[in-house]
Specification:
There is one protein chain. This protein has helices at about 70-80, 95-110, and strands at about 5-10, 10-15, 35-40, 40-45, 60-65, 85-90, 115. By secondary structure, the chain is an alpha/beta fold.
Length: about 130
């Protein structure tokens, strides 16, 4: 898939954004990466901070813990996307304490634009 592609896989419509994985380190090659918007509601950016231009994101799967990010960058990303709802993804690399700290920062960022933060745990879900 490439940025701008739209794919129908009934009952889903998938729209793709971005092109490259976020930089981990200058010694590592930057690989392809696209984010996907599902049914114009759920946006999963993959391993990047690509903002889906021209889209009001209903629900954002916000990356929270990965070798390519720091929490301040994620906060700025959530502020830029302005989702109505958000939860974290990429959180399994975080300790319990780290996950709590990141959740508090991402909750703050989500609420700045009137959104709702939900710290989903493994096996939990939310209705969209």
């Amino acid at each position: 898939m490439r940025a701008g592609d739209v794919v129908e896989v009934e009952p889903f419509t998938l729209r793709f954004f971005g092109e490259k994985h976020a930089v981990i380190h200058s010694s590592l090659p930057v690989i392809d990466n696209v984010g996907v918007l599902v049914n114009d509601e759920l946006y999963y950016p993959g391993d990047s901070f690509t903002v889906p231009e021209g889209v009001e994101v209903g629900t954002l799967a916000a990356p929270a813990g990965a070798p390519w990010l720091k929490v301040g960058e994620v906060m700025d990303y959530v502020l830029a996307v302005k989702p109505k709802r958000a939860f974290y993804a990429h959180d399994m690399t975080l300790s319990v304490a780290g996950k709590g700290m990141h959740a508090a920062r991402l909750q703050w960022a989500t609420e700045q634009n009137g959104g709702t933060w939900t710290p989903l745990e493994v096996g939990e879900s939310i209705d969209l």
